[in-house]
């Protein structure tokens, strides 16, 4: 077992890397400058934490959120790693302990907020910094909504310390990557890893708005007791929806940028630590959310762009266990997002790029086939499997909408692009409203040509037209619809368009969203019992539950039902330190009784040396009174047996040095037979 594999298993409890992690770990460990663009939840932290343990000196981790840093430090400490953080949230005792560990050369990872760099790099030069890791590196980009001015100091720190730097982000666009290279690496292109963006464990789903509060409440009800995030477009909506969720019996709170800093901090802490809590938030609640067992993310309003959507749904299922999403959208969302872009202060080319990003998201919302293929095509990925989205679950019913769209476009043109969808639908349906009569629109050739659909169906057709960017609201005409260039081929009969029939039917009873169970019905009671045990440990230690074990680890325990500590050690996420601290307690939940194991043997649990130890122990029992059973009792200590079990090049001389003459004489030949059989 290589050093890397040994640390991966013993400290982090994993038998292997996730796709793409291994080569990044290798490059960072070798001291190369690295830029890694990895999907949200793709395991970025491991890519700098593991190399930090393999390299001499201290690795400084620059991270933007205090709560996130503190939780990562606690998780590392639980795994037996010497880690600390210097943040404004530290007590004086915590800060003293960090400096003492630095002075003694014990600390391997030091987490710092970027603002801390303003004080200069003097003390970092003195403590032997070997590497800098930058989490959420896109914060250096002045184009991004997460821009942090203090990130601009990191490049100078790298030059001062003359150490390698590894930068990590989930933001993929070329503009941001170029800024990271310029600001953090002084323009020298680092070794760059662009990992695939697929998160196959996340189920993707969109739905047209049809009573959005009810839709969100139904979605949450089908997932009661699971941690979730609901994103809303306005602050007031977060407060109202959180209250509605609480009235429905959920543990829920709101979060937005207008709250007092202390209230926001309390909300963040509660969400990190409590099982099954729902946060209803604006996008102010986002970067740095690293709770691995968020089981679902819902959008009560359409996100700003496809990148924003990808980042926000990526906060679900970071532990790799199944997670679900639901995104609601309607014509008002589309009008609002278009207006925000058109009325912004960005230069024209930036506005055009923002419209293109919104178009990509609307294309995903109005997709006629697999969501995952549509989403990943935006990131230039074409080899995509799915089976885990609403359109794969239940293919869309599609019809030729060319005639309906042509009628709608004609109505827009004949009214000189001065009206919104409501008035245009009245014309198409032949409704003689005062507004229609006053403007003479009851005399238009398009008057009453659309009676094959009702108002609700026409609303869905107009929404799909906006989603396909055939028409856009004009902010200078109070949101009146105008044709885009994309509409002209359809209007002229040069192109056709398919629409979804299932979104234009008259109001039907909404289907209650089905929850995807985390485990089978048979395993569910055991999973609940394991979660209760985890909660007790977490509350006693005042840490988030996932710091003890994440959901994926508990799911594996519930499904595999380990019968021994050796079995427990093979569960993903159970490292040596956690096996020592919690293994017996969780095993007792599974098998109903505690298993005793000597600490020396427990350190070998789950490894081949463990079964060698057991055979050595059996041989020793047979020979305790010699081959004839009449000699004076003799035995080796547990630590001696553990050392023998781990011997690679064993011979009689090596055993004699380890065990002494008498024990080597009695047990040596039999022990060598066991080692040869195991080798």
From TrEMBL:
Q: Which PROSITE patterns match?
A: HELICASE_ATP_BIND_1, HELICASE_CTER, HRDC, RHODANESE_3
Please list the residue ranges annotated as the Helicase ATP-binding domain.
25-190
Q: Does the keyword Lyase apply?
A: no
Look up the record and name the cofactor or cofactors this protein needs: Zn(2+); Mg(2+)
Domain of life (superkingdom): Bacteria
Q: Where is the Helicase C-terminal domain?
A: 212-362
Keywords linked to the UniProt accession = ATP-binding, DNA damage, DNA recombination, DNA repair, DNA-binding, Helicase, Hydrolase, Isomerase, Metal-binding, Nucleotide-binding, Zinc
This enzyme catalyses:
Couples ATP hydrolysis with the unwinding of duplex DNA by translocating in the 3'-5' direction
The Rhodanese domain covers which part of the protein? Answer: 214-270
- According to its UniProt record, the EC number is 5.6.2.4
Database matches in InterPro entries: DEAD/DEAH_box_helicase_dom (IPR011545), DNA_helicase_ATP-dep_RecQ (IPR004589), DNA_helicase_ATP-dep_RecQ_bac (IPR006293), Helicase_ATP-bd (IPR014001), Helicase_C-like (IPR001650), HRDC-like_sf (IPR010997), HRDC_dom (IPR002121), HRDC_dom_sf (IPR044876)
GO MF term set:
DNA helicase activity; hydrolase activity
Residue intervals of the HRDC domain? 520-600
Family (UniProt): Belongs to the helicase family. RecQ subfamily.
Q: What is this protein called?
A: DNA helicase RecQ
Q: Which organism is it from?
A: Roseobacter sinensis
